[in-house]
Amino acid sequence: MEAEEIVGAVEEAVGSRERGFVETVDLCINLKNLDLKQPKNRISVDVVLPKKFRELKIGAFASGEVALKAKEAGAEVLDPEELKRMDKKKARELVNKYDYFVAEASLMALVGRSLGTILGPRGKMPEAIPPGADPAQILSRLQRIARVKSKTAVLWVSVGRKNMAAGEIAENAAAVLKAVESRLERGWQNIGSVFMKTTMGRAVKVV
User: Fold this and answer.
1) What does the alpha-carbon distance between residue 84 and residue 178 come to, in Å, rounded to a whole number?
2) Domain limits of the chain?
3) CA angle 129-135-140, nearest 5°?
4) Each residue of 148-184: pLDDT tens digit?
5) Rounded to an integer, what distance in angstroms lies between the CA atom of residue 83 and that of residue 58?
6) I want to staple 83 with a disulfide (CB 3.0 to 4.6 A). Which of 114, 147, 163, 204 is the partner?
7) Domain 3-53+144-205: which topology?
8) Residue 105's closest CA among 57, 46, 142, 61?
9) What single string gives the DSSP state of each residue in the chain?
10) pTM, rounded to two decimals
């Protein structure tokens, strides 16, 4: 499904009355004819959205020049040495504080030993910053990621905010739909219906 086929539903959804805050716009995908008890039928994918719509909090395990570049790009730099002195309570607090993490490639093993048992189950293992790579490019991509997981047969994915152009929201929604469809055993035949909805607005059917 292309963005042009979704934009009408987006316009209707965001046309609801104004609230005292900028509402998030969600894409709702209802799956059908899938046994989600079978691991092969579960979806877990990070979709890089075409349009950024929120500021995610990203922690960077880095030092020296890489740390400086990561900070300039908007990440909060975390001292790798602190990991060696961190108890489980502080480790959990740290992990819960950030949406994503990045780490210099040389520090990945240390991060894994110190936080792996907490980061792993939450799907927050850091993305490695290869030697010589620009952290800004990695951070820019992470800021546009939408995480899709099929815990139930109904997928809810935030794809925009009400103050965005309808076309941009539709582009993000189309990217998520394409990623989900490609991971379903029978493709679009496993999708029962699709809706767009603002935080406090009514659901508008796309298909």
Assistant:
1) 42
2) 3-53+144-205, 58-142
3) 120
4) 999 899 999 999 999 999 999 999 999 999 999 999 9
5) 17
6) 114
7) Ribulose 1,5 Bisphosphate Carboxylase/Oxygenase (3.30.190)
8) 61
9) --GGGTHHHHHHHHTSPP-SS--EEEEEEEE-S--TTSGGG--EEEEE-SS--S---EEEE--HHHHHHHHHTTPEEE-GGGGGG--HHHHHHHHHH-SEEEEEGGGHHHHHHHHHHHHTTTT-PPEEE-TT--HHHHHHHHTTEEEEE-SSSEEEEEEEETTS-HHHHHHHHHHHHHHHHHTSTTGGGGEEEEEEEESSS--EE--
10) 0.87
Cα–Cα nearest to 148, from 33, 10, 29, 36: 29
| Fold designation for 58-142 | Rossmann fold (3.40.50)
